[in-house]
Amino acid sequence: MQFFLRNIVLAASCALVAAPPAVGQTIASKIETMGEPASLQFTGLRMREQNGLLRIQAELSNLDTRQQSAYYRVQWLDESGFQVWDDEAWKPVLLHGAQKLTLQIVAPTTKARDFKIQFSATDNRPLSQPSASGNSP
């Protein structure tokens, strides 16, 4: 009887492990960095729909005491992940030492159901292999 119960418990635990986990969207899944920022980090990200348009609040933090600059733009996507708006122009951001800044971003179309923020810091960590492309857009 113990052997039978142990096999049932083992089979049930295997079924739980084999089932795909629920995929939650993280900040990292919404940010595409160009290089690895040395001092800037996204520390918060919220999204909601209002009047049919997506609204995003992205909190960017400067972990250094020196002033840091960066650039960002948003790719607006439909529910299938297809881009629904032309590429935006890069927007500059300046953060003073140890500053937190909240970026307020509104979708330009009601077709947008998802987004990806492309981000490029002026000061990036050195890479193991030099890249042919620059750090800024």
What can you tell me about this protein's structure?
It comes from Herbaspirillum chlorophenolicum. This is YcfL family protein. Residues 1-24 form the signal peptide. By secondary structure, the chain is α+β, with helices and mostly antiparallel strands. The chain has a single domain, classed as Sandwich (Immunoglobulin-like), CATH 2.60.40.3230. It contains two helices and seven strands. The chain has helices at 2-18, 27-30; strands at 31-33, 40-50, 53-62, 68-77, 91-95, 100-106, 114-121. Strands 1-7-4-5 form a four-stranded mixed β-sheet. A hairpin with a 2-residue loop joins β2 and β3 (53-62). The protein is globular, with a radius of gyration of 21 Å. Residues 1-23 have low confidence and may be disordered.
List the uncertain runs.
1-23
CATH fold-level label = Immunoglobulin-like
Distance between the termini: 67 Å
Shape summary? globular
* Quaternary organization: single chain
Architecture in CATH?
A: Sandwich
Task: Sketch the major β-sheet.
Answer: 4 strands, mixed
Mean pLDDT: 83
- Beta strand %: 35-45%
Percent in helix:
10-25%
Number of helices: 2
Strand order in space, largest sheet: 1-7-4-5
Q: Which structural class should the secondary elements be placed in? A: alpha+beta
How many domains is the backbone divided into?
1
* Helix-strand sequence: HHEEEEEEE
The overall strand count is 7
Q: Assign the CATH class.
A: Mainly Beta
- Radius of gyration in whole Å, from Cα? 21 Å
